[in-house]
Write a structure and sequence with these properties.
There is one protein chain. This protein is of the alpha/beta class and about 280 residues long. It has eleven helices and 13 strands. It has two domains: about 120 residues, Rossmann fold (3-Layer(aba) Sandwich); about 120 residues, Hypothetical Protein Tm841, Chain: A,domain 3 (2-Layer Sandwich). α9 packs parallel to α10. The strands form three sheets. The protein has a six-stranded mixed β-sheet, sandwiched between helices.
């Protein structure tokens, strides 16, 4: 008899409701802090509420990783029911949240908890969750799922452009030197999530149109068979270039499917408004 496998992720995954329900995925929230008030992403602060608050806020918000006890409380009921748990989480290079899940596994003393570093963020986590969800429903073992996730992660990539690097620099995801390149000469920075799960400035271009074309060109350079892959397009509040990027992706990559989504509080705190990304 196959193990009962329960999927978990964190709120940084920006997991669309359709997939959360389809694969019965539990989401452990990170926190977003405006002034003296701390909100739980997706629980006490919705996507729409976050972007409204960000527009009205004089100071940039900050985020807090999920704590080990948050994962203990989330995992324990399923451990007690005999489930194998698979948590696919935010890159350990971007947050301590993944380490909190590892500590929770140790605290629970449960061998059947598997912590998988997406080495990505936002919808990059979601793409892995969709694969895992499909395989669970098809009856695959946890070993088979983990092997496939490793293969998918190895050929994945992400490129994005944002209006300002201020949020990423203040949140410590880019250095001040890296942030400076986007503030001079009115350039549009193209950023990437690297193989190691860090964020780096990949290129600087002069216009939004060129930024979109460059992101798609960079994706093509990976030389993967997009006809067999999902491509995800996500954006922060205020981005009006989704149709243009979607048209480019269809024409240049011709993927098996395009997944779309709105970036939420955890990632949105660091990206800011006017951002758009391609993940594959």
């Amino acid at each position: 008899m196959a193990d009962k496998i329960k999927l978990f992720t964190d709120s940084a995954a920006d997991l669309p409701k359709i997939y959360r329900e389809r694969y019965d995925i539990e989401v452990v929230p990170l926190s977003v802090i405006f002034g003296d008030i701390e909100y739980k992403d997706g629980l006490t602060l919705s996507h729409a509420e976050f972007w409204e608050k960000l527009q009205d806020s004089k100071e940039l918000p900050s985020t807090n990783q999920a704590a080990p006890n948050d994962f203990v409380e989330a995992f324990r009921p399923f451990v007690e029911q005999g489930y194998t748990i698979l948590y696919i989480g935010l890159s350990i290079k971007l947050s301590g949240t993944l380490q909190s899940a590892v500590l929770a596994k140790d605290l629970l003393g449960a061998d059947k908890i598997h912590v998988f570093d997406s080495k990505s963020a936002s919808i990059g986590e979601t793409l892995l969750l969709i694969t895992a969800g499909e395989m669970i429903q098809a009856g695959h073992s946890i070993a088979e799922i983990l092997q496939r996730l490793e293969e998918q992660r190895a050929e994945s990539g992400a490129y994005f452009t944002i209006d300002s690097l201020t949020h990423l620099v203040k949140g410590g995801r880019l250095t001040k030197t890296q942030g400076f390149v986007g503030s001079v000469l009115n350039v549009k920075p193209i950023l990437q999530i690297t193989r190691e799960g860090t964020i780096e400035v990949a290129e600087k271009v002069r216009s939004t149109k060129k930024a979109l074309q460059t992101m798609v060109s960079r994706a093509k350079e990976h030389q993967v068979d997009f006809s067999q892959k999902r491509v995800a397009i996500v954006h922060t509040w205020g981005a009006d270039t989704v149709p243009e990027l979607k048209k480019l992706v269809h024409a240049e990559l011709a993927p098996a499917e395009i997944v779309e989504g709105l970036i939420g509080p955890t990632v949105g705190t660091h990206a800011g408004p006017g951002g758009i990304a391609i993940f594959f």
